[in-house]
Every structure is written in C-alpha cells, then in structure tokens.
Design brief:
Layout: H1 23-30, E1 34-41, E2 46-58, E3 64-70, H2 71-74, E4 80-84, E5 90-99, E6 104-110, E7 130-135, E8 145-159, E9 165-171, E10 183-185, E11 191-198, E12 208-212, H3 213-226
Antiparallel strand pairs: 1-2, 1-4, 2-3, 3-6, 4-5, 5-6, 7-8, 7-10, 8-9, 9-12, 10-11, 11-12
Length: about 230
C-alpha cells in the first residue's frame, strides 16, 4: 500500500529570519521530536539494539506518524520495534522500509500526536557552521543527550562496515553508539542530517558523520511510496 507523507505547517516558533537560536532554544525546539528506538529480535524479549529516531511527519489521514532512523539500527532478524518518547511513553512501531546503502530506515507509529521536527536544506551548510546533535548515547539510559560542535567537512565520502556508501556531513558534535538515527540540527533548530557513524580509534577523535537531509529525503520518499529504494 502506498503511504503518503504530509509535513506539518510551519510552527509559530522563532523564524530563522530573526537570527540564530540559543542552545537552550534549540534544545527546547528539538527534544520532543527526538525519540528512542528499541529493537527486539528473536522471541521479542531480547533487546537487539537501541538507537534514536526523528519524527518526520504523518500520512494524509493522520493515522500514522513516520519516524526516521538508521537502517543499521532496525536491520534485525524477526524484529519487534518500540518507539519511546521524551516523556517515557512507549508505542509499538512497524517497519516501512530500510536502505542499507544510505543507512536510512523508516518506521511508522499508528495514531499518535508526536511532534514532527523542522527540516532544512543540507546543501546550505558550510564548514564552520555550528551544529547540534540530540540522541541516546548508550541507549535509553542517556535519552535526549544534547551536544554541539561545528561542521568539519561537506560531502565527505564514507564507506561503512555496515554497508552504506554516501557522502556525509563531517562534524565535531560528539555522538556515540545509540545516537544513530538522531538529528543533527543547525543553529535554527532545523534538522540538517541524521547521525550515523564515527571513527573510533585511539589516535582519532571528533570525526563524526551524519547523512545530509537532501539524501535522506529522497530515500525516505521512496521508502514510504514503495517500501524500497
């Protein structure tokens, strides 16, 4: 069944034309749109992975809300998915589709009033721009952790051990396992990337990657329309 995506109307929050938001304002804007993604596999009692998701929008009759996350978070055998909100409420979620090449996956939650995030054009990013990451490093124990940094490089080619190949935004906003699928946002609190990976090595630090929203949107549109890319 083809599912259509509807983005909500622009919010009445501070307009980007008014200038950048403070870190406190950015957190307030994005934290309700950041969710936890808990994946059970096998007999549906064993936790396979815990990650992060971003609320994107809903279908035309508002019976389903779409959650963006990373493909490697939800790519499990016989999975069961649970989405956890900032206030600790949990909902059963269902897979719409995933794409290993870009590491983007989409879940849907039925009949909720979750708050969609505000998305921006990632091609407007420049090296040196300040960015913020929100997610769940280590899982639900550190739900909603908020960090900041700058853009280090644009369109950095990445070949990941989990299989994806995409030109990513490289940044210094700290992320850790569990942040995968979370939002990278600009100084206006708009999502410009989906956090996906980092280089982990004794002699390497602050090399973190996010999938740009321009890539993410094409993949998500295809997954929602067809179930695949």
């Amino acid at each position: 069944t083809k599912l259509d995506l509807v983005q909500p109307p622009a919010s009445e929050e501070k307009n980007p034309a008014d200038g950048p938001l403070s870190a406190k304002e950015i957190y307030k804007k994005v934290h309700e749109s950041s969710v936890g993604v808990i994946v059970y596999s096998g007999n549906a009692t064993q936790v396979y992975s815990e990650g992060t998701g971003v609320v994107m929008g809903y279908n035309s009759d508002k019976t389903a809300t779409y959650i963006i996350t990373c493909a490697h978070v939800i790519n499990a055998k016989n999975p069961k998915f649970v989405v956890q909100t900032a206030d600790g409420e949990q909902f059963d979620a269902y897979i719409v589709g995933l794409d290993v090449k870009t590491d983007i996956g989409v879940l849907r939650v039925m009949g909720t009033d979750l708050k969609p995030a505000d998305f921006a054009d990632s091609s407007a990013l420049e090296v040196g721009d300040e960015v913020y990451a929100i997610g769940n490093p280590g899982g639900m124990q550190f739900f909603g952790s908020f960090t900041n940094g700058i853009v280090s490089a644009i369109a950095r080619p990445v070949n990941s051990p989990v299989g994806y190949e995409v030109a990513c935004v490289q940044h210094t906003a700290p992320i850790n396992p569990g942040n995968s699928g979370g939002a990278l946002v600009n100084e206006y609190g708009q999502v410009v990337g989906i956090t996906s990976s980092k280089i982990i090595a004794i002699d390497t630090d602050s090399v973190n990657y996010s999938i740009p929203t321009n890539v993410m949107k094409r993949v998500v549109d295809s997954l929602i329309a067809n179930g695949y890319v």
